[in-house]
Amino acid sequence: EAAKYEKKVMVLDFVMPTPLGNSWGLGGTCVNVGCIPKKLMHQAALLGQALQDSRKFGWQFTEEVKHNWMTMTESVQNYIGSLNWGYRVALREKKVTYENAYGEFVGPHTVKATNKRGVEKLYTAERFLIATGERPRYLGIPGDKEYCISSDDLFSLPYCPGKTLVIGASYVALECAGFLAGLGLDVTVMVRSILLRGFDQDIANKIGEYMEEHGINFVREFVPIKVEQIEEGTPGRLKVTAKSTKGNQIFEGEYNTVLLAIGRDACTRKIGLDKVGVKINEKTGKIPVNDEEQTNVPYIYAVGDILQDKLELTPVAIQAGRLLVQRLYAGSTSKCDYANVPTTVFTPLEYGACGYSEETAVEKFGEENIEVYHSHFWPLEWTVPSRDNNKCYAKIICNIQDNERVIGFHVLGPNAGEVTQGFAAAIKCGLTKEQLDNTVGIHPVCAEV
Amino acid sequence: MGWEEKQVRGYPEFVQTAQRYHGRPIFALFCGDKDAEGRSWCPDCVTAEPVVRNELRNMPDESVFIYCLVGDRAYWKDPNNEFRKNLKLTGVPTLLKYGTPQKLVEEECFKAELVRMLFTED
């Protein structure tokens, strides 16, 4: 965007390899080890389900359908490779200088870039934008870095993970557990306390229930204390020992793969921010910025997952970045609107949401001032193959004091992301319950509920 | 050792040649056929060829550069021709690094900088 306004721009992108030596190309987390491969693998799992359903719709095939991990992973990685290449071409065409080097501040207006061969170069600039994102957190227990994998490794794993233990209850943990099970693997999820912290808990529990009923094992209220290797191999065999959070019970299990998904930490500690005086939250590593994405140092800005108190979503980061550049170089005054940002969790039963969760709405407006409308629904496509008839669910939360304005939208069901996008636009326009009631539904689709 | 060039015509010859050099970096430039005077029916190919040839020295050692004539205009326009179907080519000229998603299509091939980037990318 900045290059559009004739600015001289340089991008420093470098991926520190994972403990197991994995790295990737230009594009950041979303493209390489996040949203893109995740959605593709989720789709692979959905297609498996569709193949099962198809028999009830009249498709006849006698062979048992099996899944090949390598075929899927190769296709996914190939697509990601084309995206990496596309970005390289786009940057070049727009005359943005790109260096595959690790950047860190060494003094005012100056960064040092170190490439993978250790060669250092110094660069100065008028302004800097930090968008270094996050990396998966490790547990800090014996065997974690040597034997466990994270989402950074999963999407390019050169062998099928086999029987897998997922540690964590974040959306990353549940989405991965979901598609791995959907591909036919034996999956267990170890949860310390609640599922999907920060999301509507009523829905989080429904998601957990659905996953459990569909063959994913849950081990609740336990934390792992060590991981040992029983046998080497691709995959090998690992033994996990865990302790209960509520007593002295010990849990032991054997798995081919252990996937850690307990959270992500901002990459802000080793980029020399102290040398230029940028304040970070010491505890979380996040950077506080004003509503113009500016840090406490006027010529240094930040966007994306590293920002304090802001949503960790790709489109939010992109929007914030674009608007920032337009404000700096094209005379715009638009600021990034972080309210009512829609999001979707691609668990086996997808969850789309926009606005407040029920708990947060009650906290902010008071229980007597909000009204919740909800309904279970049975997608027409699920009737014939006799799939669950009481699992899909939708609810809206309205603010009674403000014309019953819709302040929270939640839907649990197939294609939740597609459904939510339209409603997000309506909510941005100030949708009220009455307007929603007056909108004629499309039939037969899930969204008409 | 430097690099070497192989000139081929048509899909089967291309595949045979690419397979023979499996293990070495292979770059391929696909152009429309040339007439008796050596001019291609594809004007963009005429523009791109000198740009690409000028950058060949930037290919890594041991590289193989395959210069492939795809066929006449009628063959190329057929949506089911083997290059479109099997190599997923969408236009000529196309310059690609065989076995990777890295490629440059049509006007992208006119830009020396992009061509150089394709040849020198890890």
Radius of gyration of chain A from CA coordinates: 24 Å
- Any low-confidence stretches of chain A, pLDDT <50, length ≥5? none
Strand coverage percent of chain B: 15-25%
According to CATH, the homologous superfamily of chain B is Glutaredoxin
Query: Judging from the principal axes of the Cα atoms, what is the shape of chain A?
Result: globular
Terminal CA distance of chain A reads 40 Å
Mean pLDDT of chain A: 89
Q: What is the CATH C level class of chain B, in words?
A: Alpha Beta
- What name does the CATH topology of the largest domain in chain A carry? FAD/NAD(P)-binding domain
Estimated structural class of chain B: alpha/beta
> What is the highest CATH level, the class of the largest domain in chain A?
Alpha Beta
How many individual helices of chain A? Answer: 13
CATH topology of chain B: Glutaredoxin
Structure characteristics:
heterodimer, A: 449 residues, FAD/NAD(P)-binding domain, Enolase-like, domain 1, 3 domains, five-stranded parallel sheet, five-stranded antiparallel sheet, 25% strand, B: 122 residues, alpha/beta, Glutaredoxin, five-stranded mixed sheet, 5 helices, 5 strands
